[in-house]
Specification:
Layout: E1 8-13, E2 19-20, E3 25-32, E4 41-43, H1 49-57, E5 63-66, E6 69-82, E7 86-93, H2 98-109, E8 114-126, E9 132-145, H3 167-183
Parallel strand pairs: 4-9, 5-9
Antiparallel strand pairs: 1-8, 2-3, 3-7, 5-6, 6-7, 8-9
Helix pairs in contact: 2-3
Length: about 180
């Protein structure tokens, strides 16, 4: 936790459900409800609802950052919403930003395997096991990161189900996209 801002972070591991297509679309889950992370916290269904509604009213968006660095935005989250599973995100890595191109290549190669949410806890409680139940969160950003905390959160390629995406095909798509960009 950043003691100056109260910003906390939760990590989600990329995998079969987290991919990027050749047109730089990235989608999947940045957080799952009811699953304990490595820090012992559990996000409760509905925890993001008030924050997402406030952002919409204020016509603001959740930021897509590189490694939680506010000086390194790498894309745009076009859709951030809660569903029955968790916090679903869908957006575009910006290939006009050097770090966005790097992120595409690193995901394709398997070198980056995580998403992480940056948030402030508004309401929380302890369960019978002493784990923190996160009931209301103020969501600030979703970052691509190296080290995830919630191993089960994933992103899927455009048009695929969020289960069973083939990372070898994704790596090949990234390589094709990289070659195409190099020709421009």
């Amino acid at each position: 936790m950043d003691m100056n801002t109260g910003l906390e972070r939760k990590f989600a591991r990329l995998g079969d459900d987290l991919t990027v297509t050749e047109d730089a679309v990235i989608e999947g889950y940045a957080s799952y409800f009811g699953e304990g992370d490595q820090g012992g916290d559990i996000v409760v269904k509905g925890a993001y609802a008030a924050s997402l509604a406030r952002l919409e009213r204020e016509e603001r968006k959740v930021r897509m950052l590189w490694q939680h660095d506010p000086a390194q935005p790498i894309g745009i989250w076009d859709e951030v919403r809660e569903d029955d599973r968790g916090l679903y995100v869908k957006g575009r890595l910006l290939d006009s930003v050097a770090r966005g191109r790097e992120a595409m290549a690193l995901i394709g190669a398997g070198a980056i395997d995580g998403l992480s949410i940056g948030y402030r806890t508004v309401r929380a409680a302890k369960n019978d096991e002493g784990r923190r139940l996160l009931r209301e969160l103020e969501l600030w950003e979703v970052s691509l990161v190296t080290f995830p905390m919630l191993p089960s959160a994933r992103v899927a390629a455009k048009g695929e189900s969020l289960v069973g995406a083939d990372l070898r095909e994704l790596a090949a798509a990234f390589e094709d996209a990289r070659r195409e960009l190099a020709r421009m």
